[in-house]
Amino acid sequence: MQNDWLETWLTRWGAWCETGTIHNQQVTSWLRHRRGVFKGGAAFETDGDSIEYAIEKAVSNLASQNNTAARVIRTEYSSRAGANQAARAMYLDMSLRTYQRNLKQAKSIVYDEINSK
Predict the structure, then answer these.
(1) How far is CA 40 from the centre of its chain?
(2) Mind listing the pLDDT tens digit for each residue in 76-115?
(3) Is the confidence at residue 70, as pLDDT, over 90?
(4) What crossing angle do the helices spanning 67-76 and 96-115 adopt, rounded to 10°?
(5) Is the full-model pTM beyond 0.90?
(6) Shortest CA distance to 89 belongs to which of 80, 76, 107, 77?
(7) What percentage of residues in the chain have a pLDDT greater than 90?
(8) C-alpha–C-alpha distance, residues 40 and 17, integer Å
(9) By Cβ atoms counted within 10 A, which residue in 7, 9, 86, 101 is the most buried?
(10) In this structure, are residues 75 and 87 in contact, taking their beta carbons and an 8 Å threshold?
(11) What is the C-alpha to C-alpha distance for residues 50 and 56, in angstroms, rounded to an integer?
């Protein structure tokens, strides 16, 4: 279901949330070549920020349904919460297994929402 592009964009989204910018300017060029990744081939403009906005919207929608999963995905891609998933789970006061289950659910929902456009 999910592939490397989702992980790449979630990582970029995390940086974008913290700084408001994309750290790698080559992303926009990469996106122009990869537009067919999304259904219809034109779900987003060629501006890289469009992907980050779409992810943010999906995570915000997720928060209204499952706030725990939204907190987990935000923590996973934040640079402030710890170096590994065990530390991030402890930061959120949950078991590693619960953290991983919520992360998997959050990624699936974000993927489905972005890919449905």
Answers:
(1) 21
(2) 998 776 689 999 999 999 999 999 999 999 999 999 998 8
(3) yes
(4) 90
(5) no
(6) 76
(7) 46
(8) 27
(9) 9
(10) no
(11) 10
Q: Vertex 69, ends 63 and 71: CA angle to 5°? A: 70
Assign 3-class secondary structure to 40-69: HHCCCCCCCHHHHHHHHHHHHHHHHHCHHH
Structure-block tokens of residue 78:
């934040």
- Classified as helix, coil or strand, 82 is coil
Question: 3-state SS string over the chain?
Answer: CCCHHHHHHHHHHHHHHHHCCCCCCHHHHHHHHCHHHCHHHCCCCCCCHHHHHHHHHHHHHHHHHCHHHHHHHHHHCCCCCCCCHHHHHHHCCCCHHHHHHHHHHHHHHHHHHHHCC
Residue 22: what residue type?
Answer: I
Residue with tokens 């537009």: 35
| pLDDT tier, 49 (very low <50, low <70, confident <90, very high otherwise) | low
Read off the amino acid at residue 82.
G
Contact 45, 12 (CB under 8 A): no
